[in-house]
Specification:
The structure is a single chain. The chain contains three helices and seven strands. The chain is of the alpha+beta class and about 140 residues long. Strands 1, 2, 3, 4, 5, 6 and 7 form a seven-stranded mixed β-sheet that branches. It has a single domain, classed as Nucleoside Triphosphate Pyrophosphohydrolase (Alpha-Beta Complex), CATH 3.90.79. β1 and β2 form a beta hairpin.
């Protein structure tokens, strides 16, 4: 039986990337959330009536301190969170400005090469987004 969309928690985020300021290689941003003690891509719940892409970029800025330019939409994820169905839409997004400052939601941030990012991510479902990002950037 399908779950009615209005009971699904709607969220959005980005696989945030940049070119390393040191060697120019691709780096992916991961955030550490102390509440869950996990490493993930920046994401969060949408506000009522908020456009998913606008919400994804808002969450990136709130959690990482970086402004980003969105790219291709990546595969959405569906899973149970606290017993409720959740749908998270993701976009590839290039960090263009900003600086991280720890906050209540995110206490640490890492910029890692794709292979290291894949290994650091806590949830296996988040690792598939690294491959999706790499596929989209190769096509660009």
């Amino acid at each position: 039986m399908d779950t009615p969309e209005d009971t699904v928690v709607q969220a959005a985020g980005c696989v945030l990337w940049r070119r390393s300021p040191v060697h120019g290689g691709l780096e992916i941003c991961l955030v550490h959330r102390p509440k869950y003690d996990d490493w993930s891509h920046p994401k969060g719940k949408l506000k009522r009536g908020e456009d998913a892409l606008a919400g994804a970029l808002r969450e990136v800025e709130e959690e990482t301190g970086h402004r980003a330019v969105p790219g291709a939409e990546l595969p959405a994820q569906r899973y149970l969170a606290n017993g409720r169905p959740k749908r998270v839409r993701y976009w590839a997004a290039e960090a263009v400005s900003g600086a991280f400052a720890p906050n209540d939601e995110v206490d640490r941030l890492l910029w890692l090469p794709p292979g290291a990012a894949r290994l650091r991510l806590t949830q296996p479902r988040d690792r598939t987004l690294v491959a999706a990002l790499l596929d989209r950037l190769r096509l660009a």
